[in-house]
Amino acid sequence: MTEPKKLKKPRGKARLIEGKCIACGARCQSACPVDAIEMSDAGEPIVLSDKCIGCVKCVKVCPAEAIEMFFTPEELKILEELAEQQAAGAAPVVDEEDAEEAALAKMLAAYRGVWVFVEQTEGEPATVSWELMGVGAQLAKEINTELCAIVIGHGVEHLCREAFSYGATKAYLMDQEVFRFYRTEPYLDACCHLIDKYKPEIILMGATGMGRDLAGAVATRVKTGLTADCTGLDVDDKRNLRQTRPAFGGNIMATIMCDKFRPQMATVRPHVMPMSEKKDGAAGEIVREQIALNEADILTKVIEIIRDTKVGIDIAGAEFIVSGGRGMMGPENFAMLQELADELGGVVGASRSAVDAGWMPHDRQVGQTGKTVRPKIYIACGISGAIQHLVGMQDSDVVIAINRDKDAPIFEVATYGIVGDLFQIVPAITNRLRELKASRNKG
Amino acid sequence: MLAIACIKQVPDTTQVKIDPATNTLVREGIPFIVNPYDTHALEESLRVKDRFGFRAVALSMGPPNAEAALRKALSMGTDDAILCSDRCFGGADTLATSNVLSAAIKKIAEEAGDEVGIVFCGKQTIDGDTAQVGPGIASRLGFRQLTLVDKILSLDMEKRTIRVSRKLEGRHEIVEAPLPVMLTVVRELNRPRYPTVPMRLTAVDASVKVWNNEVLKLDVNTIGLKGSPTWVSRIFSPERDKGEIIGDGANDPQGTAALLIDKLLSKDLLAL
């Protein structure tokens, strides 16, 4: 009787699944340890199968599941036999426990707590901070930890109490003359001092001018990941933060992880998260901290803060918005939208392409790089509806879309869709409103 | 003194579409452009070159074909153009990207035997939209950072200070900082110049320096995919409820308008 031949488990070769690659930036190529991946001009991988060692690293790293392992019929046969042997009682292959993984788990466990940075200018809080308290409380609950506020400024203790009323149970307060005006350097030092000392696992900041300025500096200093403009935040079963945001210019959504580094940092734009409920009089613990920093150490000076006096059109707070996109054909046609907006008592907004074309100013832009809005009624005229626009307006109570193209993605978020020529339909709506108003006045 | 403009070559995202059948990005024929905000950074680096005698250098990280973006910078009048390109830089998030760019900035200064006065960046890119690389560079270099600059009010070369206006939500801030400084700029700052025909012709022959990691000598664990704390775990098109199409808007605009208003009134959404 011959010794049963020991079967070697075939590893296979990586190969690209046609049409699934999203040209994410050569992550597979970077992951390959043996230089078996080259990039085509279109940014898609070419796997050199004679070099591939079947390590599966590229398969794992691909965000679009565009790479698979390929086995020859002979290899598939061997795999089948191995599976049969295992089913017949052979010991399953045990994954090697990794010392590295244990060290990582220990490091991660040292970080606890969800922090929200309370942004303020001259003592006045930015509402996005309170919006973040809502999602922060939810995250803290899911991973059974506390929600803390970070309050940095001068004469800002009242903001700690306000943070408690929005759900924080603890506030780290750094109240010093040197923090009177926001400058990156002192705020960066203050944040890093708190992070080093209290080790939070999640930090949320508003994606405002100040929040982005600070978050980028802090993440770099503490050498951790930062995800910008998140529209969704939740945690997985290993208490890692899942950060969802529009990607590729807003054409698709991506979930970003930062599971091997702490803290996990994210920014969120104003109006994306619903305002958290206010409970006046709620109490919490204030933890006071100081750092040795004097005004003389800070070479950056805020000379003046000029509040914009020109009361611009505040589309973010409007109840009715009539927005125009590429389908408006030109700037002169926005007058038609203005007439409808006037009739409704609302304002005119615009999509990114209309703003990029110079038809409307940037402060009217609705979308990921413009403003996030939550009006009662949003009327989208000639807007096809790229995700970058949809994330900016999809929380409107009622969305009305008017577009010639019945397949436009805007109809997927519309409460009422009208397929047709906006140049006929918009004036028809305006006229109808005027007629009704006139008849009521008579009556 | 050196003025360095950091630029990125990006796909023109306004032209990216989704294939509804396969739910994947359709990228064929999408042109590459210099990130629009970065053209304002470039222009400002050229203005401090023209007015204060800075040496203007354009810097980018990307695949070999990103050379086209730097050639555009050269055609606008940049003195020098450097592309950091190496497969080990690939797959970088903003933390890893700022590492390569800040190392390159140090190297530029070292090679020129000169100091960096101002690093200009666009306020964000139109593909990533993060606005994180500029602050990352400043933080790594220990430079002051002034983000969202919409006006340079003064540049005092004797006192080595810069005074700018920053455009924030509902307000402007006038801020003064000492050099060296990193600025991120918004569109209102300037109007980028058009390259002249002779400049374009010169740029064709000018050389773009390509630096790989043999030049920058960075720890491979701090760059590219390995040096990136964040990674994309999932990409998807969100599913949504299909909207209700009402009326026959194409043939009966008046009737459809009336129908819409009736619906809104019946749900108490309009007050007349």
From TrEMBL, chain A:
<keyword id="KW-0249">Electron transport</keyword>
<keyword id="KW-0408">Iron</keyword>
<dbReference type="Pfam" id="PF01012">
    <property type="entry name" value="ETF"/>
</dbReference>
<dbReference type="InterPro" id="IPR014730">
    <property type="entry name" value="ETF_a/b_N"/>
</dbReference>
<feature type="domain" description="4Fe-4S ferredoxin-type">
    <location>
        <begin position="12"/>
        <end position="42"/>
    </location>
</feature>
<dbReference type="InterPro" id="IPR001308">
    <property type="entry name" value="ETF_a/FixB"/>
</dbReference>
<dbReference type="Pfam" id="PF14697">
    <property type="entry name" value="Fer4_21"/>
</dbReference>
<dbReference type="InterPro" id="IPR018206">
    <property type="entry name" value="ETF_asu_C_CS"/>
</dbReference>
<dbReference type="InterPro" id="IPR014731">
    <property type="entry name" value="ETF_asu_C"/>
</dbReference>
<comment type="similarity">
    <text>Belongs to the ETF alpha-subunit/FixB family.</text>
</comment>
<dbReference type="InterPro" id="IPR014729">
    <property type="entry name" value="Rossmann-like_a/b/a_fold"/>
</dbReference>
<dbReference type="InterPro" id="IPR033947">
    <property type="entry name" value="ETF_alpha_N"/>
</dbReference>
<dbReference type="Pfam" id="PF00766">
    <property type="entry name" value="ETF_alpha"/>
</dbReference>
<keyword id="KW-0813">Transport</keyword>
<protein>
    <submittedName>
        <fullName>Electron transfer flavoprotein subunit alpha</fullName>
    </submittedName>
</protein>
<keyword id="KW-0479">Metal-binding</keyword>
<dbReference type="InterPro" id="IPR017900">
    <property type="entry name" value="4Fe4S_Fe_S_CS"/>
</dbReference>
<dbReference type="InterPro" id="IPR017896">
    <property type="entry name" value="4Fe4S_Fe-S-bd"/>
</dbReference>
<keyword id="KW-0274">FAD</keyword>
<dbReference type="InterPro" id="IPR029035">
    <property type="entry name" value="DHS-like_NAD/FAD-binding_dom"/>
</dbReference>
<feature type="domain" description="4Fe-4S ferredoxin-type">
    <location>
        <begin position="43"/>
        <end position="72"/>
    </location>
</feature>
<keyword id="KW-0285">Flavoprotein</keyword>
From TrEMBL, chain B:
<protein>
    <submittedName>
        <fullName>Electron transfer flavoprotein subunit beta/FixA family protein</fullName>
    </submittedName>
</protein>
<dbReference type="InterPro" id="IPR014729">
    <property type="entry name" value="Rossmann-like_a/b/a_fold"/>
</dbReference>
<dbReference type="InterPro" id="IPR014730">
    <property type="entry name" value="ETF_a/b_N"/>
</dbReference>
<dbReference type="Pfam" id="PF01012">
    <property type="entry name" value="ETF"/>
</dbReference>
<feature type="domain" description="Electron transfer flavoprotein alpha/beta-subunit N-terminal">
    <location>
        <begin position="22"/>
        <end position="220"/>
    </location>
</feature>
<dbReference type="InterPro" id="IPR033948">
    <property type="entry name" value="ETF_beta_N"/>
</dbReference>
<keyword id="KW-0813">Transport</keyword>
<keyword id="KW-0249">Electron transport</keyword>
<dbReference type="InterPro" id="IPR012255">
    <property type="entry name" value="ETF_b"/>
</dbReference>
